[in-house]
Design brief:
The protein is mainly α. The protein is built from one helix and no strands. The protein is about 95% helix and about 0% strand. It is rod-shaped and about 80 Å long.
């Protein structure tokens, strides 16, 4: 009986840790996408400025 409770508790802790890791990864991907958009817009402004000269 005690081993079953211990196994269930350990599985629950591992599940919570795995879900927290997924949340951090998804947040990081969102930040990377935003940075990519910003860099692309900055490059476009640079090209536009160079073409206007």
């Amino acid at each position: 009986m005690m081993a079953k409770k211990l196994t269930t508790g350990a599985a629950l802790v591992l599940t919570v840790l795995a879900l927290a890791s997924c949340g951090n990864t998804i947040r990081g991907v969102g930040q990377d996408a935003a940075n990519t958009v910003n860099a692309t817009q900055d490059a476009g402004r640079t090209v536009e400025g160079a073409a206007a000269r």
